[in-house]
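re: that chain from earlier
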Amino acid sequence: MSNGEYLRYVALGDSQTEGLGDGDDTVGLRGWADRLAEHLAAVNPSLEYANLAVRGRVAGQVRAEQLGPALALRPDLATVVAGVNDLLRPRFNAAEVAGHLEEVFTALTATGAHVVTLTFPDVGKIAPLARPVRSRVFDLNARIRAAAARHGVTVAETAGHAVTTDPRLWSADRLHASPLGHERIAAAVAHAIHLPGSDDAWTLPLPPRAVPAGWQAAAAELRWAAAFLGPWLARRLRGQSSGDGRTAKRPQLLPLSATPDSPAGTGPRASP
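^ sequence. v structure.
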């Protein structure tokens, strides 16, 4: 939509789109999709927004669980971001993951919706212990670009800018964006869809920071492994997911100022 006046925005995906790293489960999650909805509502106050994303979901689950509800909401704008949970698993198949995403692209674009997706930054530069999966990220990004090109899907190329691997854009677990990171992702998507008032300022580097000494960096890696990598691996071995028992935080289209649990869709939005 050339003037950016979208009426119905639906977000599909996993924890990043749900908003982990930007708020918490007590005060409420904000996240880049909520922030993008705020940009959209600034252009069109009549915007209605739904967020179907659930943490821990792999691409096949996003297709199986979220595509049908998304189609029923008849969005004119949809964001589809998934695949990170897949590439972290031992048996990763880039073609299969991209195939699930392409099915979502196909179905949504067939309704006339403007669909937007992202590429993923180099995880090896965010968490050095994740370097073994770098090739998976590059492979998946290439397949996402190809699938998007086949269906007229807009790609926000967050993979191509050095700032996206700045530690300040990531939360302590290095898997989820920090509030600043979510802000930059929202700005990247707004720029990709040429939303009025958007620009490429999201690509600019942050001010210089002190670089930790080698021993400090090594100690930080050990603390990260103990606090986050170990528990994550333990959940995988037990066949558990962080999203077990969870449902979408915003399953229906509502004005941005409304919360899903308020009567008739009215009431204040949860604080970020």
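Residues 98 and 144 are 6 Å apart (CA to CA).
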